[in-house]
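Q: what sequence does this backbone want?
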C-alpha cells in the first residue's frame, strides 16, 4: 500500500473491514496522499453469507463462527468516515448489482 501511495498508483484493499475502526487506517492514509476513496458495501443477509461460504473450497471456507462474528460487528460505511463515494453491492440472481449509497 505504501508504494502505491507514494507513486500515486490506484489500489484496492480487498479485505472485509467490517468496522469503522478497521477502515479508518486505510482511509486516513489514502486521504493524506490526496486519493479519492471509494467504498463498496456488500449488502447480504447472514443466511445468504453462510450459504455462499458453504460452497467455498479449502482455506477460502471460513468457520461459521467467524462469519457470524464478523456479521455482528458489521458497521455500514458512511460518508462521515471520509469516503468520497460509497456503493452498495447486492447479488441478485447470481449477478452483482451495484448502486450508489446516498
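A:
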Amino acid at each position: 500500500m505504501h508504494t502505491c501511495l507514494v507513486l500515486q498508483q490506484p489500489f484496492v484493499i480487498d479485505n472485509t473491514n467490517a468496522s469503522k475502526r478497521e477502515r479508518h487506517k486505510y482511509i486516513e492514509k489514502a486521504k493524506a496522499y490526496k486519493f479519492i476513496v471509494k467504498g463498496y458495501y456488500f449488502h447480504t443477509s447472514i443466511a445468504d453469507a453462510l450459504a455462499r461460504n458453504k460452497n467455498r473450497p479449502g482455506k477460502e471456507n471460513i468457520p461459521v463462527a467467524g462469519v457470524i462474528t464478523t456479521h455482528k460487528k458489521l458497521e455500514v460505511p458512511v460518508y462521515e468516515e471520509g469516503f468520497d463515494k460509497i456503493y452498495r453491492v447486492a447479488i441478485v440472481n447470481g449477478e452483482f448489482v451495484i448502486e450508489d449509497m446516498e
